[in-house]
């Protein structure tokens, strides 16, 4: 990526000003939210309870049985009175990395992890400000972080999506500084959400960014070794079988119902699942997903700079999410980076339809009640077209900005 971007603020200026007061208020709000949630009556039904079950199994030295669903039920029911009906289906290394928290009581572990999430949230707000010139007002920038519901849901659920947002953000910053290998390493560390990270890495593979791919492969191998240490070969095989069962049972609530997923898979299942059957569903979704990723990679093969490059990155984020096989509300968190990039890099004024499409999707993503209503009505799959529209709009806007920039350069040279 190029550093030839629109003038951006140098970040928050600490001192007796509105930005500092806003950050202080944000810190107080986040800490208060973690403390309040950790003493709430429904804490056992959060997603962190699944992580805690997986961590407890590995901590007890029973990692080879981690993906035995019946064993998970036994452990889960022994820990909680009103357990979450879902199962732990994340990669083995995640359970290993969380296993130290399994030594602690559940509420204490939840509070510690919530504090980590809150700290990452605050650090990202501070770190990214120097790279995100929109909105210009610091308080507006801070407010938009809190208006984006998926990040708040992540904090409450004890999920790891804020950490995934952090890895996308650091990957973006590393690419800005032309550090392809380091960017790949950082993205690879997000493989605890492999259904999103792999499509993003695939785009860079098609673009023949070999240093990026090498970095991604390096961190992937490290996490693979940790997974073997956690569950052994038997556990890894069981994990693959579990993933297969999840993809072949889209109606199973214990795996997460597909109609509650804003992905191509969830959307196609909701509309045509009963017509085309399981095999037809998987093939059709795979074809659509591959076509979208290849389209973005193909468009990104040529050299993009500045605003155009930022928008391609935003488009790739949206595509990596919508092509993921398993996605819920908190998984939208990386979209926050994409939205800020889109807000800072609008397409040229003559393209009013494109500007409207991009702006409309941004409004919908920041319209926080929509997530809760769609979850309550079991129709979150309706957010899939919004993700697709954003991805395509950002891609087209990037092309128009690139053409405009090229024309301006030619005009200057000719003059």
Describe the protein's architecture and organization.
The longest helix is centred in the middle third of the chain and has 39 residues. The chain is mostly helical and 415 residues long. The chain is globular, with a radius of gyration of 21 Å. The C terminus is likely disordered. The chain has one domain. It contains 17 helices and no strands. It starts with 17 loop residues before the first helix and ends with a helix.
Topology (elements, then pairings):
Blueprint: H1 18-38, H2 48-59, H3 69-79, H4 92-98, H5 106-129, H6 138-147, H7 149-157, H8 161-176, H9 180-188, H10 194-206, H11 210-248, H12 264-299, H13 306-322, H14 335-344, H15 352-366, H16 369-376, H17 384-414
Helix pairs in contact: 1-5, 2-3, 2-4, 4-11, 5-7, 5-8, 8-9, 9-11, 10-12, 10-13, 12-13, 12-17, 13-14, 13-17, 14-15, 15-17
Shape assignment: globular
Q: Whole-number radius of gyration?
A: 21 Å
Number of E-type strands: 0
Q: Bin the strand percentage.
A: under 5%
Order of helices and strands: HHHHHHHHHHHHHHHHH
Mean of the pLDDT scores?
A: 91
- Estimate the helix proportion, in percent: 55-70%
Report low-confidence residues grouped into runs of 5 or more. Answer: 409-414
User: In angstroms, what separates the terminal alpha carbons?
Assistant: 28 Å
- Count the domains: 1
What is the compact description of this entry?
The protein has about 425 residues and is mainly alpha-helical. It has 17 helices and no strands.
């Amino acid at each position: 990526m190029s550093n030839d971007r629109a003038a951006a603020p140098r970040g928050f200026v600490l001192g007796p000003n509105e930005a500092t007061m806003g950050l202080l208020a944000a810190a107080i709000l986040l800490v208060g939210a973690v403390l309040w949630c950790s003493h709430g009556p429904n804490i056992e039904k959060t997603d962190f309870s699944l992580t805690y079950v997986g961590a407890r199994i590995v901590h007890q030295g029973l990692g080879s049985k981690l993906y035995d669903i019946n064993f998970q039920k036994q452990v889960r029911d022994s820990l909680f009175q009103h357990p979450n009906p879902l199962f732990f289906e994340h990669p083995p290394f995640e359970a290993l990395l969380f296993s130290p928290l399994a030594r602690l009581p559940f509420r204490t572990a939840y509070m510690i992890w919530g504090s980590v999430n809150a700290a990452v949230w605050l650090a990202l707000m501070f770190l990214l400000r120097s790279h995100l010139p929109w909105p210009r007002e610091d308080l507006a920038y801070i407010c938009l972080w809190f208006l984006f519901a998926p990040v708040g849901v992540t904090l409450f659920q004890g999920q790891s999506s804020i950490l995934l947002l952090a890895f996308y953000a650091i990957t973006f910053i590393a690419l800005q500084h032309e550090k392809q290998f380091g960017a790949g390493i950082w993205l690879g560390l997000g493989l605890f959400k492999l259904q999103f990270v792999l499509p993003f890495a695939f785009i860079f593979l098609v673009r023949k960014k070999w240093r990026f791919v090498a970095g991604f492969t390096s961190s992937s191998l490290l996490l693979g070794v940790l997974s073997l240490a956690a569950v052994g070969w038997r556990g890894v095989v069981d994990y693959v079988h579990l993933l297969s069962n999840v993809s072949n049972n889209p109606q199973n609530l214990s795996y997460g119902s597909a109609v509650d997923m804003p992905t191509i898979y969830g959307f196609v299942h909701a509309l045509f699942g009963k017509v085309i059957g399981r095999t037809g569903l998987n093939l059709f979704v795979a074809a659509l997903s591959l076509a979208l990723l290849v389209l973005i990679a193909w468009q990104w093969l040529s050299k993009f700079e500045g605003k155009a490059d930022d928008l391609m990155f935003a488009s790739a984020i949206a595509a990596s999410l919508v092509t993921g096989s398993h996605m819920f509300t908190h998984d939208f968190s990386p979209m926050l980076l994409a939205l800020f990039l889109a807000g800072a890099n609008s397409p040229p004024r003559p393209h009013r339809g494109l500007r409207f499409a991009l702006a409309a999707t941004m409004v919908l993503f920041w319209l926080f009640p929509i997530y809760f209503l769609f979850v309550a009505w079991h129709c979150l799959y309706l957010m899939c077209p919004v993700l697709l529209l954003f991805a395509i709009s950002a891609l087209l806007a990037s092309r128009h900005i690139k053409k405009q920039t090229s024309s301006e350069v030619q005009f200057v040279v000719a003059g």
